[in-house]
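User: What would this chain look like folded?
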Amino acid sequence: MPELEPVIGLEIHVQLKTRTKMFCRCENVWRAEENSRTCPICLAHPGTLPVPNKKAIEWTVKLGLALGCEIASRALFHRKHYWYPDLPKGFQISQYDVPLASEGHFTLPTAEGDREIGIVRAHLEEDAAKTVHVGGSAGRIAGAEYSLVDFNRGGTPLVEVVTKPDVRSPEEARRFLQLLRQTVVELRISDAEMEKGSLRCDANVSLREPGGEFRTKTELKNMNSFKFVADGIAAELERQREIYEGGGEVSQETLHYDPASGTVEPLRSKEYADDYRYFPEPDLVPVEPPAEMVEAARAELGELPSARLRRLEPAIGFDLAEGLVASGRDTLFEQVPGDRRAVANVLMNQFAASGVDPSHVNAEELGKLIDAREAIPRATFAEAIAASGNGDFSAERYLAEASISDEAELDPIIERVLAANEAQVATFKAGKEGVLGYLVGQVMRETEGKANPKVVNERLREKLSA
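Assistant: Here's the prediction, encoded as structure tokens.
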């Protein structure tokens, strides 16, 4: 059997952080008391009418431009019908064949060159409510005793970004998602945090002979971390390979990835577009973004993460540049003076582990600290990095400890100095402690001034008094 290549398309859902919901004026907040942010509109009471959120439309246009999409001069909202407890109307107001943004591309830098991931569309819709499964395993519906519905999330503005099946590996899917997430965050339209559900990703996965016809695809749902996205896709690719190698055929279905077991399990048969019975939303007029709105959004884009990665790469290499940009630490990196690779490595290691918010850091002071990193004890350096986000942070306090303070390192030097200066030792023991300054000086000379005078003084007194 010939080697099969992965064919992966992603569907990314981005919750917009507008002040209010998509079609009503309920407050759009996270972690409010259950069902406390609802109204007759988002609960689908009879006779209520939706009113579009202008800011959500503007932000969708901005995201579409960042994705290289064409912005529609006239877009339509549709009704997408399906029955589930989290959808009080029995349909979702979404966009179908005439979305706000379509036919785009996303540049994904790699160490070997740029990859272009096609964007089919970026369309605006309302989010469903949140279903909470009680009992069972890890909140999953399988094995749950019962389910609850929190309608606070219902009606939240949601942009769905759909890629073409251009992704070719689980790792590429992870990297694409991380860079897209950083793009969204920098546009300031969403927190895009997977653990909160404000960024969610589904993956359409299949295998084919290289360059050949597409085969049946499956859809992986509800993966809530970058790692799980890559792991879930890898597990599904392996499952499909085993099916084909065994002479079977893959069924079109929706799957759930279980991180605990590393396996995928079926949820239901995969729907086709016709199953949703789309038709234009009769209670909403077409959306026609004014030219001035589009141009204003374009002017706010700035340098996108993919371009910034390429700009930083020559100085620090691809891997460090990608790590800095994908994590959002590249802004701080460009402000911190000092050796470029040293700064990048500290930001991607010790600084990353500290959890400090990069926007709170005094870059000049952090640069001083990194310059002296080799002379500062490891524990002290870690302590300084952890404190670097404090408003009053100063490197001087920690640079004072840049001298050798480790007793295990100083003691052998002190022993040699004492052995070489027996007369001074005897003078000290006779009660003339003024000679201690001379001995401290000898230790400082031996360490080329790098020893911590306070520690040297204390250790000399302890040894001379023993």
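The first helix runs from residue 54 to 66. If you want, I can go into more detail on any region.
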